[in-house]
Amino acid sequence: MKNTKKKRPLNLIASDYFNYHGRHLPQQCASDEFYFLPRSEVATEHLNSLDNLTPEKIQDHNRYVLNLLSEISSEEQDNLEEEIDRVLLKQSMKSFIREFNDSKVWRNDPTLYVKIPIFAMDQVLSQRDSTPDQVKTNLFLLFAQIPSFLSLAIKNLHFPSELSLQVVLNMTQDAIHFHNIVVCRRRELGENIIYSRELVISKRKGLIRDATYCTHLYSQKKLTTMLTSAGFSAVGFQKDFVSHKKKGDYGCMTNRMIVIADKK
Mean pLDDT highest for which of 77-91, 145-159, 211-225? Predict the structure, then answer.
């Protein structure tokens, strides 16, 4: 039976395509660096979010674009402008599929995971109509996402080349020198608590973050008493597993302990 389903107008397919990427891959859609993705106005509404590059989401992205591509008519249009729009839209979709589905850039290119956070910070700092409080809030939201984003890079990347790794190292060093960020910490020791204030300052942009937090301190004796009273036995500790060649302020993480205990 012949399929008589009416295809959507090209402008609606294009709008769907641009808006989808703007929501899910905002940083790549907001920068000309990523040629295989379209520029999207919707991306500017999500500049405090890093792109979702989990394998499951990548599959969703590929499937979504393939479905949109199948909606575009294969017949040439009589109107020259409409034909140009049709061809360019198809090329854009095929470019995305080539990079993310065929070449799997998210599996092979480590620079992707360095460029996205760097460009994200630059986008936020470059927003002229944002207030200082909005800039700080958006930067804080980005900083909070970076550790998990880099952890995802470790999981996603499959044997990147030595050359690409060297490029990433150079990019990271250049970014540090460019932003020239200084972290200042002030700590006060209370009774089993360290009260901390941390300032992150860019010599170019001024104050980026001003945060306070507390760290509770536990001795092996106190932990043993707490765990024993909770029904644990054979309490053991592993410590001194963080080593540094040079002396310096490495924060409280240097004195972490791993506690191992049994409970029947």
Answer: 145-159
Cβ atoms of residues 218 and 203 within 8 Å: no
Helix (H, G, I), strand (E, B) or coil at 232: coil
Confidence class for position 252, pLDDT limits 50, 70, 90? low
On whether the CB atoms of residues 43 and 29 are closer than 8 A, the answer is yes
CA distance 159 to 175: 24
Type of residue at 234: A
What's this model's pTM, rounded to 2 decimal places?
0.60
Domain boundaries, the chain: 10-178, 180-216, 218-264
- Tell me the torsion sign for CA atoms 104, 138, 128, 118: negative
Closest by CA to 251, choosing from 206, 197, 207, is 197
* Distance, CA of 113 to CA of 28 (rounded, Å): 11
Give me the torsion for CA of 114, 119, 120, 121, rounded to 10°.
Answer: 100
CA–CA gap between residue 61 and residue 122 (Å, rounded): 25
